[in-house]
TrEMBL record:
This is Small ribosomal subunit biogenesis GTPase RsgA. GO terms for cellular component: cytoplasm. The gene is rsgA. GTP binds at residues 158-161, 209-217. PROSITE patterns: ENGC_GTPASE, G_CP. Residues 1-34 are annotated as: Disordered. Its main location: cytoplasm. GO terms for molecular function: GTP binding; GTPase activity; metal ion binding; rRNA binding.
Amino acid sequence: MRRYGKHTDEDDIRSRPGRRNTRPRTNIRPKHEDAAEGMILTVDRGRLTCLVGDRVVMAMKARELGRKAAVVGDRVALVGDMSGKKDTLARIVRIEERTSVLRRTADDDDPFERVVVANADQLAIVTALADPEPRPRLIDRCLVAAFDGGLEPLLVMTKSDLAPPDKLLELYGALDIPYVVTSREELENGGAADRVREQLDGRVTAFVGHSGVGKTTLVNALVSEEQRRSTGHVNAVTGRGRHTTTSALALPLTEVGGWVIDTPGVRSFGLAHVDPSRVIHAFPDLESGTEGCPRACSHDEPDCALDDWVAEGHADQARLYSLRRLLATRERTEGD
Ligand SMILES: Nc1nc2c(ncn2[C@@H]2O[C@H](COP(=O)(O)OP(=O)(O)OP(=O)(O)O)[C@@H](O)[C@H]2O)c(=O)[nH]1
Ligand SMILES: [Mg+2]
Ligand SMILES: [Zn+2]
């Protein structure tokens, strides 16, 4: 079954070797010492587009990789035909250890838990100030996913020509997250790209957010003309985007170095996999205060030591409030 044509993991279950194959796998597995290094730019069903040196090579996963999904941003080892010529196919024989993982748990939209992007340094959480309306709970959930997965968050507020950013800035002020506000006019005069670019410097940044918030519009403003993708419209009646972008794609930033990864719009962001201690780790001012907490403290219960920690002046009340709000987003099932 290939729902939406992108669930390659299930295909792999079927292609596992049968019972007849009883030889130990380690003995038959070639070492692939001569494999080339590459990076996955996009995934379309079982076909993976990889950058190998300066060549774009189509590849598929070798059987020996089993169920493990290869995703955009993955560093991989390839063998086989790497000419990059039409109708050639290389094989991915190894997925290198990931430095970060942006993961979403199964939710109503998508029944599978999946890694969305690998090895991104930064998560640009894109929200429109209007059209569609900002949904702070989705922003919170993206923040938690970033903290959990080891990505640094960046808040990008688009469409400031339609509404001011004040309320959102107040809500996220205590978190001390870098942010950029952009408008239609600044998209046109290059100001938006300049300011976003300042936050990208040589790193790998994944752009996430609701459909129609302007992720692709912004990514297009950052990359060279021949790399641009199509953008959509926001439905005037429902206020929803049209899910114009259907696959994640990594694009190089030729001027400043690094990569931007455009992703399809999401309605929600499942967080059931998240470990609270990794979220607290993103709050070093509060983390040391948890030493006095009872075991397995939810940090939102009467015995939680963080209330005293704040009362004693070690950290700010607004920070504790923000941490508790983020931890609480894990429990909710709805996305926005
Ligand atoms: N007024 C205004 N419109 C904008 C701005 N940025 C983007 N848009 C418009 O918003 C619409 C949606 O933009 P996209 O870039 O396709 O949005 P997206 O987030 O990539 O959407 P999906 O691919 O569906 O997830 C387009 O009509 C853009 O022109 C802005 O700063 N101001
Ligand atoms: Mg898009
Ligand atoms: Zn606690």
